[in-house]
């Protein structure tokens, strides 16, 4: 008999299907997906363009609800927990299109997210923590205090990453987070994801086309024809 005391996985998808309904046609994107994501693990999800990776992240991050099936956080249904509460306290997302607040500076984008989620740094102010995170990711104070529209695409992507890292959540989702970054910056960010999973016991789920990123993650999942399959990285 299996142990009754084993903790539920941090995130579980059970029988998850998702279909987009247009005026004339329906697109079945995800088909009956079952998967359990664990803490302390860094996952990469690969798959061709249009295979449903962003759709899967939007369901797992509580932005949308599946047309069929259930998603649970530590055993509790997301709809029961409240999607807003889940997004606020337990899951942070780095979006494919960044979704920064364009009327704010880089620094304000990060501190604003900390205020909304009620994240208080263990030492120092929110501003100091935000500046530290931005600096760590390669944006100095002069850049941090510029309006985000005055930053390059790669710099905006780094603001989106710093914003997600600033909120102390259990699960971090990222959609193509290294797409616009040079190799060195990308390597630094992959290192940060590994550290979050392995040293802070977070669950990190990254969608990417990058084999470099997949090679450094613990588990590689592939989404194809609506199905999710797994290979474990041999090391
Ligand atoms: N809001 C929507 N309404 C209708 N169809 C949609 C919607 N969003 C996505 N789709 C369709 O669902 C499918 C999966 O899209 P999705 O954005 O999840 O793919 P993806 O794997 O993230 O692709 P990419 O690698 O290009 O980012 C595509 O066929 C897309 O056209
Ligand atoms: Mg996508």
Automatic annotation (TrEMBL):
Pfam families: ABC_tran
Keywords, ordered alphabetically: ATP-binding, Nucleotide-binding, Transport
CDD domains in the cross-refs: ABC_MJ0796_LolCDE_FtsE
One term of GO molecular function: ATP hydrolysis activity
Keyword Thylakoid annotated: no
Domain (ABC transporter) ranges: 11-234
SUPFAM superfamilies for this protein: P-loop containing nucleoside triphosphate hydrolases
One GO location term (cellular component): plasma membrane
InterPro entries tied to this protein: AAA+_ATPase, ABC_transporter-like_ATP-bd, ABC_transporter-like_CS, ABC_transpr_LolD-like, MacB-like_ATP-bd, P-loop_NTPase
Record's function text: Part of the ABC transporter FtsEX involved in cellular division. Has ATPase activity.
PANTHER family: IMPORT ATP-BINDING PROTEIN (PTHR24220), LIPOPROTEIN-RELEASING SYSTEM ATP-BINDING PROTEIN LOLD (PTHR24220:SF689)
Family: Belongs to the ABC transporter superfamily.
Subunit field text: Homodimer. Forms a membrane-associated complex with FtsX.
Protein name per Swiss-Prot or TrEMBL: ABC-transporter
Organism: Streptomyces rapamycinicus (strain ATCC 29253 / DSM 41530 / NRRL 5491 / AYB-994)
